[in-house]
Amino acid sequence: xxxxxxxxxxxxxLWDYLTTVDHKKIAILYLVxxxxxxxxxxIEAMLIRIQLAKPDNDFVSAGLYNEIITMHGTTMIxxxxxxxxxxFMNAVVPLQIGARDVAFPFLNSLGFWMxxxxxxxxxxxxxxxxxxxxxxxxxxxxxxxxxGHGIDFYxxxxxxxxxxTLIAGINFLVxxxxxxxxxxxxxxxxxxxxxxxxxxxxxxFAFPPLTVGLFLMIFDRMFDxxxxxxxxxxxxxxxxxxxxxxxxxxxxxxxLPMFGVFSEIxxxxxxxxLFGYSAMVFATVxxxxxxxxxxxxxxxxxxxxxxxxxxxxxxTMAIAVxxxxxxxxxLLTMWGGSIKFTTAMxxxxxFIPMFVIGGVTGVMQASAPLDYQLHDSYFIVAHFHYVIVGxxxxxxxxxxxxxxxxxxxxxxxxxxxKITFWLFLIGFNLTFFIQHFLGLLGMPRRVFTYGADxxxxxxxxxxxxxxxxxxxxxxxxxxxxxxxxxQNKAVGRDxxxxxxxxxxxxxxxxxxxxxxQTPLVRGLDTFWIEKxxxxxxxxxxxxxxxxxxxxxxxxxxxxMAFGLFVGAFGALYNGEQAWAVPVLILGLLITFLSMGxxxxxxDLGYHIHKEDxxxxxxxxx
Amino acid sequence: xxxxxxxxxxxxxxxxxxxxxxxxNKFVGFWLFLGGETTLFASLFATYLAxxxxxxxxxxxxxxxxxQLPLVFIMTMLLLTSSLxxxxxxxxxxxxxxxxxxxxLMITVLLGAAFLGxxxxxxxxxxxxxxxxxxxxxSSSFFTLVGTHGLHVLIGLGWFILLMLRxxxxxxxxxxxxxxxxxxxxxxxxxxxxxFIFTVVYLMGVAG
Lengths: 621, 208
Fold this sequence. Notes:
Chain A is built from 20 helices and 4 strands. Chain A is mostly helical.
């Protein structure tokens, strides 16, 4: 218990986090930054609902409304949901597979700082002449015509943070391929690791098309290229394809890891082995694969022709099959289990009907003729909020409660947690269920107001009313977090009592080197097996205590990402300010010089010696 | 990993590029990265094919009259040969023959630089004919696709040169062997992309 006692000054702690390469600390960085952007995106959502609460409202102007909806979507997807998912991946996956860190700790840090600076850059648009206003999909004809620099902030900011995401994806793939503990075969990997693996593969193949799309946008807007301008022979549909070839896998990147979290939660709190493990794995891989085959269902009304629409409609409907397999496996995991309704479990149980609603409306839209009716209406808004909030956000909240003890060795208050849960669930349904009907009544999405004679007043008011519940729920969650941190009551190892996988077997607080001895994995749910056999240590070891190799902390990732941040300003003001090109060169120089420093200076890491490990009594708890 | 360990060709591991965990991670990670690069280039190819010969009303540039196959043939030969010489370099890396490896890499770099020289000449020539980056959708997509490849060549050259300079005094060890290896993987990838550019852009542009 020696490690908690040390109090470090603020400066030292800050420096530690700026330079850390430890996956557990990077997880906290992702959690805090992602949480911050979640609040920002939430405030934007509230502004939308205030504006739409009554007809002919002038709370915000039409132009500002466009900026708000664009930034709400972009922030929530790229700067809140994905980083929060990375927070859990970082916190859990290395521990779950018995590794001492991720494969590339330095790149892990670089990925975070690129996301960080990309997000900051994007949000600086609010203060530097206006945010992007062409919707989160930023369709080319519209975004090329957008005046000011909003779209430039969008393209450059997402380019930087997207690079960070790609790095993180490759990192997790290699970690899972190469660094599993002995005995952890692929078919013994916990579901969260499996879903991280598949989601990372999706990132690897989905983000480069976005990179290309954004570059074409940047070149068109800032360097006089003509990809999307039809008077110069360009074609605006290219953007739509590139964006959705990225965009559809992206929704599976958002949901698959949450499927993993839910699988862990269902098994843990039903105190049963996950039903149909191999079917779950197969379904996860299949969803990942099919996720690349369906992008044009976002473009049914673009005019690709009946054949293309038919093919993409059928492929889209096919995804419902593996998803259904998962739903039934979760239900059957609970069947006959001795269920404990913790906050995390409540979120998991509520997720099933919510996600099924979102899935069913998804299949409705997969039918191309019907989609001509539903396209760009509030029905679509309702649908994707049911899958993203009802799936991803519920998953994030469940994961927050479930993995909080693993990350911080304390536990979030269960009573406050349950209050948050009920308020959030009620508010969410109040807000979005009725939007299905608004859509069917013909209300188009992305309009800043509507007339009193259109008959949409009451439903919009109900929807806005529901949003207040969600805002209160999130406020209570924040109070819960502050309270938990203030009380700082250590809970120790396996706080839920029913942990099944390796991450719960490790002593708390988790030593910075994770495992003193690499564990030997003896089956699926290896910790459960050890507990059943009465093994007090919770692990069988694959090696004797020996020296542990560790990477050095480094400030270089921060500087590299900062260079891109600086350079982006140069690109943005190209052709407008005299200092633009020098700043672009300066920024890239900072990045390339720090890359050079990194490759010229050997960083072999250091060893923690066996004797020191023995002294610390790392195995006793 | 100890940088001071001295090896002989006999004690040098057979797969020096992935005989340590770090090496293995780099090896797998880089292959995956190349997978991502493949989709990047696939997107650029698709864009190029969609915009080929498309331009403003009355544009006179077409692939048939723009491209000069003899020049591109020389470039192709240069780059293909450089891929071969980088294989020789890796052969000597495997045999722990540092000097020969550096020498072959030097030749690789020279061939790559010659390729790049021709490419700059080609681009320059087009621009002088009026086919500049902003001229049409066709020109934008051409320069972006081929230019991205050219940028990869430039990065590859810089990478090789840095590696050769950094390690010139200390020779091979298990820390830098994987670095050499993945740099050569990158070089092969660039070569493969060029084969596609040669076929899809130039051959199909002139003959297709």
